[in-house]
Write a structure and sequence with these properties.
By secondary structure, the chain is α/β, with parallel strands linked by helices. Helices cover about 25% and strands about 20% of the residues. The chain binds the ligand Nc1ccn([C@@H]2O[C@H](COP(=O)(O)OP(=O)(O)OC[C@H](O)CO)[C@@H](O)[C@H]2O)c(=O)n1. This is Manganese-dependent ADP-ribose/CDP-alcohol diphosphatase.
């Protein structure tokens, strides 16, 4: 008798940092090439591939759908265009906001466009794709100097943090900051008190219901998985909550573009995904995750590396 191949409990598609703009190719601040027009082709190939797979329960977009260099009079049209491409997937698509989304549009316009559930401009939410699983989507720009009105208490709180932690006149610059202190830059953000309490209550509820949890957020949550300058401001507070519960096995993020994988001291797997934006024409970066009883398996296409997350 041949061996029986185990079927996943469910599978879902992933892509990060599409950062589309109808502008010529360029480079990041640190000189990494960015292919703004090509990134929509990466997304289109992703959607075709996900549809051909035929058994993906949903797709999750890890944020930064449109780049901050998109001309501002095109921000709305570009965001709608990209959402339409995602909507060609034959199933639900879950979005989250990244810093580049917020460079383009204010929260009150972004959230409805991206169909992000949430009240008062908050962009964190959870859903349950099967009874035994919970997906938590964090809003890493809850406390942020971008996205809220200038006089909003969250903008004021963010500016205070940046003033205290980052002495540079350009608050996007981590120059002179050491190790994880490099995260205190304007293009990152933090999770506010109310969201921390919400996270705790969702994880408690999942734990009571014997559900496993995958936590997703645009901004990486562990210093082991990404550049120190691309971390959530209060990753430590978020991880303290996550570590209270055995139910969280995997944290997924985008933002750092180069991709990374790290298992922390509590056995939580962290994976930051390779950016679609950095794919030279003819190359791709997207994938899907098979969720099994005792492991998750990321099946990447081309520049997105395969990863097994053994529980
Ligand atoms: N050292 C730096 C890095 C960036 N900036 C400026 O900050 C803005 C956002 O940077 P950008 O690289 O476009 O942001 P991403 O979300 O794509 O990537 C985040 C991390 O860089 C990934 O590791 C932009 O205006 C940059 O010019 C800066 O001033 N100094």
């Amino acid at each position: 008798m041949g061996s029986v191949v185990k079927q996943p409990l469910f599978s879902f598609g992933v892509i990060a940092d599409v950062q589309y703009a109808d502008i010529p190719d360029g480079r990041s601040f640190l000189g990494v090439p960015r292919y703004y027009r090509n990134s929509i082709l990466v997304l289109q190939r992703a959607v075709e591939t996900w549809n051909q797979h035929g058994n993906l329960k949903f797709v999750i977009n890890m944020g930064d759908i449109v780049d901050g260099f998109c001309p501002k009079d095109q921000s709305l049209a570009a965001t709608k265009k990209l959402v339409r491409e995602f909507d060609k997937f034959n199933g639900p698509v879950y979005h989250m906001i990244g810093n580049h989304c917020l460079y383009n549009l204010p929260r009150e316009e972004l959230l409805p466009l991206l169909k992000i559930p949430g009240r008062d401009g908050n962009a964190y939410y959870d859903f349950s794709p099967t009874p035994g699983y919970r997906i938590v989507v964090l809003d890493g720009y809850d406390i942020s100097a971008v996205g809220w009105p200038q006089d909003h208490p969250k903008t004021i709180a963010a500016l205070k943090i940046l003033d205290e932690k980052n002495p540079n006149s350009d608050k996007n610059s981590p120059e002179g900051l050491e190790d994880v202190a490099r995260r205190f830059v304007k293009y990152n953000g933090g999770v506010g008190e109310e969201q921390l309490q919400w996270l705790d209550s969702v994880l408690q509820d999942a734990s009571n219901s014997n559900q496993r949890v995958i936590v997703c957020g645009h901004v990486p949550m562990s210093p082991g998985v990404a550049s120190k300058a691309a971390l959530l401001w209060n990753f430590d507070e978020v991880m303290d909550i996550i570590h209270k519960y055995d139910s969280v096995k995997v944290c997924l993020s985008g933002h750092d573009h180069k991709g990374g994988y790290f298992v922390d001291s509590h056995g939580v797997h962290h994976r930051s995904l390779e950016a679609a934006l950095e794919c030279p024409p003819g190359t791709y970066s997207f994938g899907y995750i098979d969720v099994y009883e005792n492991k998750l398996s990321l099946v990447g296409t081309d520049r997105m590396q395969n990863t097994d997350f053994e529980n």
